[in-house]
Amino acid sequence: MPNLTAGIPALANQGMTAKGNDAQPGNRARPEGMTAPDSYLTNPDKVAAMLDSLSVGKVVELGTSYGGRPIRAVGYGAFEPIDRRSTHSAAYMAGQPEAFFGKREKRVLLISSAVHGAEIESIAGVMNLISILERGSDLDGVEWPGIAGGARRLRIVIVPIANPDGRARVPSDDQLGWSADETQRYRHGADAAGTPLEWRPACFVPHPQILAERSVLGGYFNDAGVNPSQGMFLARDISPEAHLLADLAYAETADCYLELHSCGAGPLFLNGWGFVPAEMTAHQHYIDGAWRMKMRQRGLPAPDGIRKPLARKAMGLIGYVYHKAGSLPLLFEGGAGRRYSGENVHRQIVDTYLTLFETLIEIGVRDGYRPAL
Ligand SMILES: [Zn+2]
């Protein structure tokens, strides 16, 4: 396998000077109403332009979607090659996990956004993160010293639009204005008669979608009708997005793979997926709890109580990434808006993602993402 990140120069100690705490989330002015501010950056052309303008992050093109659109990643922190002498599962069979993981200085956090192309909230989240990693402040100029400072002790790799085909099919940059009908059409699609589709079973059966049965192909899918979060057991030629993400996790030996989604019930973590070691699941819940606590402290919505683990008898992309790359798999559903109140919902949605990233960076620096070898 080609090393997708070979040749990326060392980026540690560049830029990003942590400053004071006076602009911490919760202390800012939030003047905008329901119109999306420029900082709610979800437009693919504007994402591409911002990636082209970065001075700290190193941008690479991982490959192209089924529809021929570039899938790009940006890395912060030095890429550290490792001496890999085995595959993940074989290394554990030998009792020598270090034969897969090797040794290096920094832990690696990999984030993929908009795996489903109409879940555009997550794009706004990661583009604000990229702004912080570039200059210490988000796209509204708010400084996040916890993110900027902690990030220098990690390597962070971000795929802002993992499913560009699906994103290109959505003729809007702001989900807060969508009607229920539009939400279903953009996210899930519509059948041959034009009736909007529900999330289940239509986003999963048939798979790939039969394009002739869809008058609107939802943003969930690439142009071949593949749902990338379930696409890794399909061939690369029709499902390049899922394979590129798994390849990237493998090439990076990502310690954590955070897959960003969004839905009306969010924000929330979905933990307890099958085929992942119990200690990984425990760490998922630990991170979930730390994020919820921060959310409540900042007056942002967080789920109450202990969520029942999802029963799963087959694995999706996050489980596949664990088995291929050894990464702690995390699936986060950002909120589409209905759980927020007030006139600053775009800002609250961005704050939700940034609070998630801040939590994850703090834990990555302090505790790590995987059990010690
Ligand atoms: Zn999704």
User: What is the overall number of helices?
Assistant: 11
Bound molecules: zinc ion
Give me the side-by-side strand order of the main sheet. 1-2-4-3-7-9-8
| Annotated CATH architecture of the domain at 48-110 and 129-169 and 219-366 | 3-Layer(aba) Sandwich
Distance between the termini: 25 Å
Rg value: 19 Å
Give the SSE string.
HEEHHEHHEHHEEHEEHHEH
Q: Count the strands? A: 9
**Which class best fits the helix and strand makeup?**
alpha/beta
> Residue ranges: pLDDT <50 for 5 or more in a row?
1-33
CATH class of the domain at 48-110 and 129-169 and 219-366: Alpha Beta
* Biggest beta sheet attributes: 7 strands, mixed
Mean pLDDT: 90
How would you sum up the global shape?
globular
Output the CATH homologous superfamily of the domain at 48-110 and 129-169 and 219-366. Zn peptidases
